[in-house]
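Subject: Sanity check before I submit

Could someone independently write out the C-alpha cells for this chain? I want to compare against mine line by line before I put it in a report. The sequence has 214 residues.
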Amino acid sequence: MNRKLRITEIFFSLQGETRTVGLPTVFVRLTGCPLRCGYCDTAYAFHGGIWYEIDEILHQVASFGAHYVTVTGGEPLAQKPCIDLLQALCDAGYEVSLETSGALDISLVDSRVVKVVDIKTPGSGEVLKNRFENIAHLLAHDQIKFVICNRADYDWSKKILQQYELTRICDVLFSPSYQEQAPGELADWIIADRLSVRLQVQLHKYLWGDVPGR
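---
Independent answer below. Compare away.
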C-alpha cells in the first residue's frame, strides 16, 4: 500500500471557516488540484510539495497538541492515500474535517470525518466539475459550502439548495467570495429569502489577509 502523500504545508492556526470557526486547528495541506477556480487562494499548493509517510504526518500533527485537524489542499482527494490519512487521524483520536471540492468521489471517506464539500458555483469557472452523486454520501455532521461571487451565483445556489433539499441533509454554508461579493449584501439576500443556511465569512482573511499558512 502506498503510504506517502505530497504535502505543501502542515501548520497550526485558528479555523477560519465551517462549524468549528475560531478553534485552534492543525491544517494538513496536500499538494495538487485538478480544478482552477477563479477565486482560488491556494494556487501555491498546485505544484511542488514534499513527500511524507503517513506516520511522519501524524508525528508533526501531534507536536501541536491540538484536538482539531483539517485536511485540505489543493484537492486532498486527488491523492488516493488521503483516505488512509483521514482514517489514521481519526484512529489517533482527533476530530477531523476534510475540505474537498466535491469534484471527486467522497464515498470512501471514513464516516467519522466531517466532510466539507464545496459545490462549485458558476462564478468559480468550474461548475461543470460538480459531482452531484456525492450528495448521497453526505451525513448529518457534514457540511456543504457555496462560494458566492455575485447575485447570479446566489440564485443558482438557491436552486441547487431546493432541488436537492440540502438543508434536510446537513448544514449549508453560503460564503461570499473574498473582496468580490460584499458580505452584507449576501446577508440581505439570505434574510429576504428566509433561507436556512449559515452565512460564513473567512475569519482568517479578516485577521491576516491573504497570508499563506494562516
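---
OP: Matches mine. For the report I'm noting this point. The radius of gyration is 17 Å.
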